[in-house]
Each structure stands twice: as structure tokens, then as C-alpha cells.
Amino acid sequence: MAKERQQKGEDEIYKEMAMMGEFKVIDAHMHAGFEKKGIKDRPGVSQGLWLTKEGMMSKEAISIRKALGDPNPFKPLKNIDEMPEFSVDTWIKIMDAANVEMAVIMGMDTTTDPPYNFPWHVPMEYIKEEFLDKHPERFVAIAGINLRAEREAVLDQVTKAKELGFLGVKVHTPSIGYPNDRERCYPVYEKCVELDLHVEIHTGVEAMPGTRAKYQDPVYVDDVAVDFPKLKIVQLHCGIMNNPRVALWNVIRHPNVYTDISIPHPTLMEFSYYHNLDMLRFIETVVPHKVFFGSDFPLLVSIYRECIDHIKLLPLSPSFKRALLRDNAYKFFNLEALQKKH
After folding, report:
1. What is the C-alpha separation between 141 and 311, in angstroms, rounded?
2. Rounded to an integer, what distance in angstroms lies between the CA atom of residue 326 and that of residue 246?
3. The model's pTM
4. CA neighbor of 214 nearest in space, from 249, 247, 243, 183
5. Domains in the chain, ordered, with CATH?
6. Structure confidence by residue, pLDDT tens digits, 23-56
7. Nearest C-alpha neighbor of 126 from the set 108, 153, 100
8. What totals of helices (H) and strands (E) does the chain contain, helices first?
9. Distances (CA, A) of 87 to 36, 39, 51, 62, 117
10. SS3 (DSSP) at 143
11. Predicted confidence (pLDDT) per residue in 171-188, tens digit
């Protein structure tokens, strides 16, 4: 009898999952720049993922290469010509297979602290030409800006982001410093309010060489939200492995603060300082309309569809799962207006 009840429960879950599959997903957190085309002009990207460091392959690179069909993903790549084919068309195929309709692309323009001085630069022009211009119905973008540059140069970057059709700008705190830095960051926030751009602030841990965890605590986002109540803010990663409780408090306290929950890896979901079921239920109860699904693509290429299916199978309400996987991002990024334009 118990086995029959269990089977009935599983049947109901998979029935609900099939119904959930009727809507398409929006991925609010993907990273461009890892594509083979022109990657030699983005040295930090190739060094950070594809090429070896001291003869060792990263587990992320091995996983991605295996998913892309590399027959020998454990073989170290000595130069970029050896990397597997990876293009915008690859993105589209993977998104289609996972029932993902649209994605929000993250740009980057930063250098970490010495002794590494690790560069990660994905120019706005590249994202516009390869993603926004070629597939305007599938991609929107957030500009990565270099907050270590001189003030006027940084503000020019913000203006250029607006002119190129980007929806907001990203502050990569692990490499640039505290997001409540009045001298470095506040002029950017003022400019974003003026231009009607939102700001996305990194609040999760970062393994990139030279980054510093002390800058990533979402407690510093509280200052920004207090000082700029008209500025829409998205906390990237919701403080994972760092301070998720304060990240959620920011979302609860401040009307202008939202969050994504990248990466909701099916295995890591169970760790208490990641996004476990209790945390997702808390979000569903308190702020269900202010959270977005994000994958941190391409890091999850090998389990992309499984990751989304895992969320659909969780014992959460169908309405919240749809809000998390689609509706909240659709409304926040005003994707209806963009779709009508194209």
C-alpha cells in the first residue's frame, strides 16, 4: 500500500511537471564571451575556462567540453585553437532543448587585485553584434563596466550601455570593491537613475584569481538601496555561500531590491547555505514576485535541462515555480515590450 501511495505521488509530480513544461523559461543570468569566435581578443575568458593553469584542467572546463561532445575532455588545451566549437548557435540549441525562450546576458569588464591582475573583459560591442543583433528575440543584456577606471570614463560606459540597448549595468564586487563605495560607485548609480537603467550587484562567492570575498557580502547592498530608493537593484546569486539571510532581508526590506538564485544546482540545493528547499519555501511565502531563476551559463551546460527540471519537480506551488522560472523576469526586464519591438 505504501509503495502504491508513493507511486501515486510520483505520478502526480510528473503530471504537474508535464503541465509546467507548457510555458517557456527565462534564464536571468548567463555569461557571454566563452564562444570560440574572437576569443583570442578576450584573453581573460580563455585563461579562466578553456586553457590550462599549470597543466591542470578546471572541472568546469571538463564538464563543458564533455557536454559539447569533446571525445577527450580531460586532455589539457594548450592553445585556443584546440577548444571545441562553441558559438551563439550552440547557445540557441541548448536553450531550445531546455525549453528556454529568452536569456539575460552578462557582460564583464574588470581586473582583479595583484598579484594576479586577472582580466575578464567581454566588450559591449561583442555582445551586441553576436547576441542582440543576431537574435533580438532570444537575448537581452546587462553591461559589464570597469569601475576601476576614471570617473568620466566609467560614466561614458554607462551612457554607451544605454545607447547600445542594454537594460542595466553590472557591478562585480569581488574585483572592484564594496558596492557602497561613495566615490567609486555612487556616481554610476546616479547616472543609472538618470538613464532609467537598473544595477545588478554580485553578492555570491567568486573563485576567480585575485577576487576578494569581503566585498561580496550583501549587507553593503543595504546602503545602496537606502541611498538610492529609485534605483532598481538585482542581487546576483542571493548571497550564496556567503550571507543569504541578509540578501533575503534586503529583498524583503527594500521595494527596489530583487534577487536571482543562480546557480540552483540540483545537488548543491541541499546544502543549508545554498538554496535549499526551506529557503525556496521562505521566498515563496514572503517575496515570491521578486526572485528570478539564473543558471550562470555556461557553467551548467552539462546539466542545464536537468537543473530546470529539478526546480519543476520541487514541492512548491505551480504558480511560484512559474513566477520563478518565467513571470518575474518577464515583468522586471519588460520583455513584452521588447518582443513587440521585434
Report:
1. 24
2. 25
3. 0.91
4. 243
5. 24-341 (3.20.20.140)
6. 999 999 999 999 999 998 888 888 778 886 655 6
7. 108
8. 15, 10
9. 6, 11, 17, 17, 27
10. strand
11. 999 999 999 999 999 999
